[in-house]
Every structure is written in structure tokens, then in C-alpha cells.
Amino acid sequence: MTSSTRSATGCTAANVTETADGLSRPDAAGALAVDCALVTEILTGFVREEVRKVGFERGVVGLSGGIDSALTLAVVCRALGPENALPVIMPYRASSPASERDARLVATQLGTTPLAVDISPQIDAYFDRNPDADRNRRGNKMARERMSILYDLSLARAALVVGTSNKTELLLGYGTIHGDMAHALNPLGDLYKTQIFALARYLGLPAAVIEKAPSADLWEGQSDEDELGFEYAAVDQLLHQMIDERRTRAELHTLGFEDAFVKQIHRRVRDSQYKRRPPLIAKLSNRTIDRDFRYPRDWGR
Amino acid sequence: MVNTEPSPVTAGEPGSRSDIVVALAQLAPRLGDLGANVARHLELIGTAAAGGADLVVFPELSLTGYFLKDLVTETALRLDSPEIQALAEASRGVDAVVGCILESDDHRFHNAALYLSGGAVVHVHRKVYLPTYGLFDEARDLAAGNRFRAFEAPLRSAGPRRPWRAGVLICEDLWHPSSAYLLARDGVELIICPSASPGRGVGHGSEIGTAQSYDVITRTYAQLFTAYVVYCNRVGYEDGINFWGGSRVVDPEGHLVGEPAGRDEGMPLHRLDLAALRRARIANPMLRDERHDIVDAECHRLHRRERD
Known about the structure:
heterodimer, A: 301 residues, alpha/beta, Rossmann fold, 3-stranded antiparallel β-sheet, 12 helices, B: 308 residues, Nitrilase/N-carbamoyl-D-aminoacid amidohydrolase, 6-stranded mixed β-sheet, 9 helices, 14 strands, 29% helix, globular
């Protein structure tokens, strides 16, 4: 059921599934296989414990219609109960109607009542004054606008913001800092996209959400894999070998990964490190926050 | 950025064969970029040789940068690595002390300083005391060295002269006086201290706290062990942490040779003279009078007591 990918990257090491439509879909087989029952149990306990120990009962999740936020919402529902899960659908006027339809499908299937907030007025108000802004600026602004709404609802509804970033996008820096990368808890941050697919199937999320091409939907027709220039199936295999297995360049070459692909991905990971770290504090004293003032975040909890 | 003019010399006969010129390569390595750092070293070694130096000392982990974390294993070198070979080759013109992560045959990673001379690695010191407190986390990533040894530093680039008895202490090694004592007992004349000391403490005077501490330590060791102390600290910032520079040479009477370096990159040169060391040891013959027999006897006694 697995075969070598024929992706543009020339990588031959990745296992992918060829689907009926001819598109390769990530497969959790092989190196990236996880025990979905075990992972679900750990993630459910994580959300329940970390939400409750800081005095909350509820979680708020930005629901895009994509697989990551659907899975996040599913985990939050299992952890806190659907009545304590607040999905927020935040379309922009140019967002794909299918996204909102899929988001509502997920929310309904999980027994939650979604809140819809159209972000068009506030986005348009800003860019009316900056009409020359390119689509990256607009996309980032939308991501941060959504973050700001989620944090407002966090206070209004006493619900912790649960993020949806997965390990692949975190490592590639494929997210907006202080936008979708900003949240209180991140249950999926140690799961590659390939593993997200497996878990979504295991938890019975709607096929429409699982089977469509992943997209940030920040502009019309956007596709993660087109924009990144490689397939999740291929890059997940490489990241797993590079990061988790700590393979050297020579070993990755031997495993069949193309040198240029390895170099490109290594550079992406390196150059996006700042997105995964808190801001730098200029050290002056003997006890600098995050450096030698280092209490756990769960301090006293 | 490089000042190749030797600073005011210590007492010593100009041109005498007992003196040497030491360059302090106070630089800011690029974190985790071996290629760029090796190139920079080769350039500075060339400049030091052209400037008449007999020895150029680089800071701790000068080939890699300091707060490496997971970059430790990725930037590690072996003695037969081409990078080390290239630097050793450059040491035909001037002796050099460089800092790197050195991987052992059984894959332990040491914070090491290599003394290079005449095309070869003459001596290796592996940092013994790995600070793992406060802002430091060295023992998480590194294996500790297990010896302090003096060695014959050839310093032969500029004609026939007698080698100096040298020893290397890396940064935290200096905070343990037993390490300097052992080198002194091993005959050291030149204590070489590569350092990557992060600046911290701004509440006490115009000098940063760490700089004040190292000033006391280097002058005290030089005076008490009547040896030259060559301290080369790095500069620059890593993840918000500054390194305060202040590289200096202290003579065997505990006086600074010239001025300590500031907080910028630079390569000051200093003249050191065995004649000054001789005079210091005549004036203050503590090494002659040192009762190693008492130290040994008491250490044996304490060792037995600690074992029980």
C-alpha cells in the first residue's frame, strides 16, 4: 500500500499512499506510525490538566475548516466536553466558502455550537489605508486578527486559547508569529502532518476535511504544498530523520534524500528558529527572565 | 579592526631571546558556523604572524560560539578533521590556541582548547569544570576533562628560543584555584585562559560584575604563582547574552601588561619576558618555598577521611 513518492523534490525515501485521484497522501506507515489510541489519551489528558490547573474549564479554538483545527477541537471536546469547547469560525470575504462549510460540519459533528466572526470589516479597514500591501502582509494580518479575537473571547468566555500548529509547520516556520502561532496550549505541536492525518482518521473526522488539500486559505486557491514547494509526505519523512533521528547530511543522502532538498529544509528550520522562541532579553543582572530565572510554567499548579 | 602594533612592553631587553609577543584574538564567533569561523581564524593567524606574534590565543569555543545546545554535536571536530589540519598548517607561522568541540573516539564531546605549533597539535586541554548552574548548562551537552597538565610550548616561529612551560585553563577552570596550583607545581610559566564569559551584574561600579571577578582572579593567580596569565575572552552577543571581552595579559607580579581590551573585536599584541618572570620569582620565591609534601600528606589524610 505504500510506494516511493515521485514528488518534485526527487525524494525517494518517503512512504506515501497513492489515492484514487492520483494525489499522494501522507501515510502514517513506517517511521511515522503512532499508536492513535495512546496519543489520543495523552493529548486528552494534556488539555484537561493544563486547562483546569490554571483555573479554566473551557477552551476556545479557531476553526478554519482544515484538518489541524478540526483535530484540535476533537481533542478539546474529549478533554473538556463539547459544551466547554468554543469553536470560532472567522472567515474573510475572500475565504473559500468550502472552508466555512467544512468548519461547520466539524463543529456540528463534535456536538459544539460554533461562533462566527466575519473579519472582513476590520481587515478591509486596515488595508483601505494600505492598499499596496501584498498577500503575505494581508495573510499575516488576518492570522493576527484571528488571534486577537480568540484572546478577546478567552477573557469574555473564560476559555483558554488552544492552538492548532503541528510539528511540520512549526519546524518549517510555516505559520504567522503572534498569529496562528500564538496560543496558550498546543496539543498537536509534536505531531507531523502525516501523523495528524492518521489521528484524524482514527477519531472519525469528516472525510471532506481529511481528504482536501491542506491550505491556510489566506488567499484564493492557496495550497500548502504548492506554496511550500514539496509534499507533506516527503518533508515529514525528512524532518523525522533529520530532527528525531538526528541523521547527518551523509546519512540522509544514503537514505535517498536529495541533497538540495535536505539543504533547503535545514535552512528553513534554522532560519525560522526565532519563531519558536520567546523574544530575546538583553542580559544585565544575575537573574534574567527565561535564562537564570527559570521556574516551570506550571509553577505552583 | 586589528591592531597589530604591540602594546607597551614589559621590562625586558628589546630583542632579547627571552621575550615573546602574544596576540589576543578577541573576536565574536558566528554561532554554529564552523566554515566562517575557520576562515576568520586563518585570517587572524596570518595577521598575527605578520605582526610578529609568537603566539595567538583565541577565546573559548572560538571555532563554534558558546551557547551551542544541540549544535554541540553538529559542530564537533576530531583531531584529524580537515578544519584542524588547516589551522595546524597555519601554525607554521605562529603558535595558536583555538577553542572547539572535540569529539572522542567513544563519542564524548569536550569543550577543548588546542595548542597548535609548527603544523601539529602540540597539546589538548579538555575543560574540566563544566558550569551547570545559573545561565550555564554545559554538563547537559559536554563531557568533562580529567587532567591539568603543563607542556612545552615551542613558540619557535621567530628563531631559536627556549620553549615556555605553558598550561591551559578554560574559563570555569579558573574558578578552581587547585587547577592553577597543579599547573604551577607542574612548572607553568604561562597560564593560557581562553574564555567565553557572559557579562552580568551591573549594580556595582562601572565594570560589569564578571569583569571585576576575572580581574581579581587573573591578577591573583599571576602574582601567587609568579607566572604570566594570558586571558582571552570573546565579545559579541548570543541570544541576548553579552560577552564582555576585556582580554588581558597579567605579569608574574600581578600587574596588567598594557591595557585590557574593551568590549569590541580586536587583536592587541603584548610582549612577555622570561626575564621579568625571573625577577618576580627572585623577589617573591613562593614557588621555591611551597611545601608540596604538606599538601600531599594532608590531601592523603583528607582523601582517606572522605572515603570512609
